[in-house]
Automatic annotation (TrEMBL):
Top-level taxonomic group: Bacteria
Oxidoreductase is among the record's keywords: yes
Residue intervals of the Pyridoxamine 5'-phosphate oxidase N-terminal domain: 23-117
Lineage, highest ranks first: Bacteria, Bacillati, Chloroflexota, Ktedonobacteria, Ktedonobacterales
Example of a GO cellular component annotation carried by this entry: cytosol
Protein name: Pyridoxamine 5'-phosphate oxidase N-terminal domain-containing protein
UniProt keyword list: Oxidoreductase
GO molecular function: coenzyme F420 binding; oxidoreductase activity, acting on the CH-CH group of donors
Gene source species: Dictyobacter aurantiacus
InterPro entries reported for this sequence: F420H2_bilvrd_red/Heme_oxyg, Pyridox_Oxase_N, Split_barrel_FMN-bd
Alphabetized Pfam families for the sequence: PNPOx_N
Length: 167
């Protein structure tokens, strides 16, 4: 992954604020326990739902059942936003990842991702890998997507800053 171009947006930042370094934003993506994904329904209405995701090899990855609303939406429109952060106004970092969801079907990569899912959540998320997909132990195919990054926004609170990481 190439390093992004990082710039602070002074219009939405405190005068003394500095840009959030890419390393800090990436760490937030690596350690986040929960994300919210936004997709678009065929009639143009937004769909937002929580999910777990894994940062691996310079991309954020998420999964969904083939008949879940987000999977249906992605068949027509690959544009997504994944959001994570904290609900505290005085401190923390909120991060928005914008890009296109691309199916991940390579079994070798899926095995690495399955291991990452199991490790990150202490074994709570376990998947088998076969035929270019995850399979849940209780049955059922699970699609996996990588987000092809367009930009990542980082909003620092306390000393408010609005940082754009452009890819």
């Amino acid at each position: 992954m190439k390093e992004p171009i990082t710039k602070i947006d002074p219009r939405f930042s405190d005068p003394q604020a500095v840009a959030t370094p890419w390393e800090e934003t990436q760490r937030a993506l690596e350690t986040a326990q929960l994300f919210w994904i936004s997709t678009m329904r065929s009639d143009g209405r937004p769909h937002v739902t929580p999910l777990v995701a894994v940062w691996l090899d310079g991309a954020i990855h998420f999964s969904t059942g083939p008949e879940e609303q987000k999977a249906i939406n992605l068949r027509q429109n690959p544009h997504v936003v994944l959001t994570t952060g904290c609900n505290d106004w005085k401190e923390g970092l909120d991060v928005m990842v914008e890009g296109d969801a691309v199916p991940c079907t390579d079994n070798a990569m899926l095995k690495r991702l399955a291991e990452a899912w199991a490790t990150k959540w202490d074994g709570s998320w376990k998947f088998e890998v076969r035929d270019g997909a995850f399979y849940h132990p209780k049955g059922g195919k699970v699609l996996v997507f990588a987000v092809k990054l367009a930009k990542i926004l980082a909003f620092s609170k306390g000393s408010f800053s609005h940082t754009r990481h452009q890819f």
